[in-house]
Design a protein that fits this description.
Blueprint lengths: L2 E7 L17 E2 L2 E2 H10 L7 E5 L4 H8 L10 E2 L4 H11 L7 E6 L7 H10 L5 E7 L4 E5 L2 E6 L5 E3 L3 E4 H13 L8 H7 L4 E5 L10 H11 L9 E14 L3 E4 L2 E4 L3 E2 L7 H13 L5 H4 L13 H13 L3 E10 L6 H15 L6 E6 L5 H4 L3 E12 L1
Parallel strand pairs: 1-4, 1-6, 4-5, 7-12, 17-18
Antiparallel strand pairs: 2-3, 6-11, 7-10, 7-11, 8-9, 13-16, 13-19, 14-15, 17-19
The chain binds magnesium ion.
Magnesium ion (MG) binds next to strand 13 and helix 8.
């Protein structure tokens, strides 16, 4: 069964408050909402084509949000004045692909999962339409002028979510009939289907599959994504570290945990790994816990020739003991020689391994000082590092 996808992203999103772009283009944890949504559908191997319905003024915003997906997405189509018009534009756009089924999804539900998508698609084998929904958890009250007049039975009541899936030909008929009949106030596609007499079933949605509507929804989602969700709360910390070691006679250097052949060595009490020392200080700085010299005094013979992994690991453990989490680290090595480029990937991998971080959270960069200063005169190597840490 070929299942096309329509992402409805044409809304103006004024309810989320403030100025700026519509809420489907708001940043959320470093990505726009639409990019997150497209990521879930684009990453699902069993569905497509995927077409997004956008507002005529949003082409530039769409191009930014979709740039990572290349050929996986169809060209976007411009929506109409109502949600129904926009969905119809999407349905017409995917017509040439002659899909068996179509999923219609609100762009502002970025936390949809592959499991929800699969449940909706799975149900379409035996029915005209399916929508994910969750049972009402709260007791329902009907109030007039602020006074409760009735408590409603919540049995059989569900909160509808998206993606809503339909047999393609059936939902096209339903939407065209609604337009022909002047019906323009349906709030979702299941209601259009229902009005047209289609059989629509409910499948299990998820409480996390929220529609981001208000500024508060965004604040909650942002906290959730940053790992500080629930009642725990927390804050972001940044730390900076800097170190220098002088050259001495030798045949290699230790830089960011990697042995780099060179016609000099670095002088130091430990293995003189200037990169890992700067990074250790950045992590300690983020949690306000002294510096490398405090925890590993050079006067202590125990650390003579020590591999600097030990210092970095210790800083990471100090963060972990506070239930903190390292988000990213960034090291810059400053020297004229040796060339860092050929070793950069190995350095990133080494740091990622020591800190148990994903590679995309570890950066190693290098620069020269254009022949100026002590690094320019090749008297030694300097390093600077920064780190961001989430502390509950
Ligand atoms: Mg040092």
């Amino acid at each position: 069964m070929q299942t096309a996808v329509i992402i409805v992203a044409a809304g103006r999103g004024t309810r989320a408050g403030g100025n700026g772009p519509p809420k489907q283009y708001w940043p959320l944890g470093g990505q726009s909402v639409l990019e997150r949504t497209l990521g879930v559908f684009g990453g699902h191997p069993g569905i497509g084509p995927i077409v997004t319905v956008i507002h005529g003024q949003d082409r530039e915003l769409y191009d930014q949000a979709s740039s990572a997906f290349g050929d996986r997405l169809e060209q976007p189509v411009i929506g109409g004045t109502t949600r129904q018009d926009s969905v119809l534009a999407g349905l017409e756009a995917i017509g040439p692909a002659a899909p068996d089924a179509v999923l219609i999804h609100d762009a502002v539900r970025p936390f949809v999962t592959v499991e929800i998508i699969d449940r909706v698609v799975g149900a379409l084998g035996s029915t005209d339409g399916a929508l994910p929904a969750i049972r009402l958890a709260d007791t329902l009250k009907r109030a007039e002028d602020g006074h409760v007049v009735e408590t409603l039975k919540r049995d059989n009541l569900w909160c509808a979510q998206t993606p809503q899936g339909f047999r393609y030909d059936k939902i096209c008929e339903a939407h065209e009939a609604a337009r022909g009949n002047g019906q323009a106030d349906f709030t979702d596609d299941a209601q259009v289907a229902e009005w047209h007499g289609l059989d629509v079933v409910v499948v299990e949605g998820a409480a996390s599959n929220v529609k981001l509507t208000t500024a508060e929804d965004f604040a909650i989602a942002e906290r959730h994504l940053s790992g500080g969700g629930g009642s725990a709360g927390g804050e972001w910390r940044a730390g900076h570290g800097s170190d220098t070691h002088r050259f001495e006679a030798g045949d290699h250097l230790m830089l960011c945990g990697v042995r780099v052949p060179h016609d000099k060595g670095l002088k130091g009490h430990s293995d003189a790994d200037v990169g890992l020392h700067a990074l250790t200080d950045a992590l300690l700085g983020a949690i306000g816990d002294g510096d490398i010299g405090v925890h590993f005094p050079p006067s202590d013979p125990k650390w003579r020739g020590a591999a600097s992994d030990v210092f970095l690991k210790d800083a990471a453990e100090r963060i972990a003991s506070r239930r903190g989490r390292i988000a990213n680290v960034d090291v810059t090595l400053i020297c004229e020689a040796p060339k860092i480029g050929p070793h950069r990937q190995a350095m990133r991998e080494k740091i990622a391994k020591i800190l148990d971080l994903g590679l995309d959270r570890v950066s190693v960069k290098a620069t020269t000082t254009e022949g100026l200063g002590y690094t320019g005169r090749a008297e030694g190597i300097a390093a600077q590092a920064s780190a961001s840490v989430w502390l509950p």
